[in-house]
Design goal:
The complex is a heterodimer of chains A (116) and B (114). Chain A is mostly beta strands and 116 residues long. Chain A has strands at residues 5-7, 10-14, 19-24, 29-37, 43-50, 55-58, 61-66, 71-76, 85-93, 105-106, 110-115. Chain A is globular, with a radius of gyration of 14 Å. By secondary structure, chain B is mainly β. Chain B has strands at 4-7, 10-13, 19-25, 31-38, 42-51, 54-57, 65-66, 76-78, 87-94, 104-105, 109-113. In chain B, the strands form two sheets. In chain B, strands 2, 4, 5, 6, 9, 10 and 11 form a seven-stranded mixed β-sheet that branches. A four-stranded antiparallel β-sheet of chain B has the order 1-3-8-7, with no helix packed on it. Chain B is globular, with a radius of gyration of 13 Å. Classes of the chains: A mainly beta (116), B mainly beta (114). At the A-B interface, strand 4, strand 5, strand 9 and strand 10 of A face strand 4, strand 5, strand 9 and strand 10 of B.
Chain lengths: 116, 114
């Protein structure tokens, strides 16, 4: 079951610019997480935002969550070539909406390319 | 170093030949999971395990088996692989079954079934 959908599917920017990726989901969630995947490698956790939080920061990352719109955004400021990767949102469904403990549902990802 | 390891990293096999992909974590995590990643489909969960001897189906369990006899290991078994199981497979673990924990991923196993 596909819960999260990232937008855009692909994004190409110059080094130093900001990158914004969006994630929309369908049902009530406990939390939403963002992961990064370098080409063909394992995913790495970036940040988690709980359903009762609206914004969270971690270094150059800023995540927002709007539960009324069922959407989240990931902003990477002052991007670097090393930020080139695919970014996935993952939602942990509320137990009231069929969620199972520990299970995350991943979107299809946004492929970010940062050109030097 | 805290990590999730998978073996093999690459595997080419033929239809019907049983295979096992191993997954091991050294973080004493209770929760482990297997995903497959396919172009245009993202990551889909195959099976997960909340603890030793406790396993359950994910979204795409058909054609796969798992076992959790020890806390650190969670092998994925394909009894009779078929070409539609050609994919990139990831094992992941987290501290416990709480959805508030981040998941740690292995490096992936690229499987080709001819």
């Amino acid at each position: 079951s596909q819960q999260g959908e990232e937008d855009p599917q692909a994004l190409s920017i110059q080094e130093g610019e900001n990158a914004t990726m969006n994630c929309s989901y369908k049902t009530s969630i406990n939390n939403l997480q963002w992961y990064r995947q370098n080409s063909g490698r394992g995913l790495v956790h970036l940040i988690l935002i709980r359903s009762n939080e609206r914004e969270k920061h971690s270094g150059r990352l800023r995540v927002t969550l709007d539960t009324s719109k069922k959407s989240s955004s990931l902003l990477i400021t002052a991007s670097r070539a090393a930020d080139t990767a695919s970014y996935f949102c993952a939602t942990a469904l509320s137990m009231n909406y069929g969620g199972s403990q520990g299970n995350l549902i991943f979107g299809k990802g946004t492929k970010l390319s940062v050109k030097p | 170093e805290a990590q999730v390891t998978q073996n093999p990293r690459y595997l080419i096999t033929v239809t019907g030949k049983k295979l096992t992909v191993t997954c091991s974590q050294n973080m004493n995590h209770e929760y482990m999971s297997w995903y497959r990643q396919d172009p245009g489909l993202g990551l889909r969960q195959i099976y997960y395990s909340m603890n030793v001897e406790v396993t359950d189906k994910g979204d795409v369990p058909e054609g796969y088996k798992v076992s959790r006899k020890e806390k650190r290991n969670f092998p994925l078994i394909l009894e009779s692989p078929s070409p539609n199981q050609t994919s990139l497979y990831f094992c992941a673990s987290s501290w416990d079954g709480s959805s508030y924990n981040e998941q740690f991923f292995g490096p992936g196993t690229r499987l080709t079934v001819l």
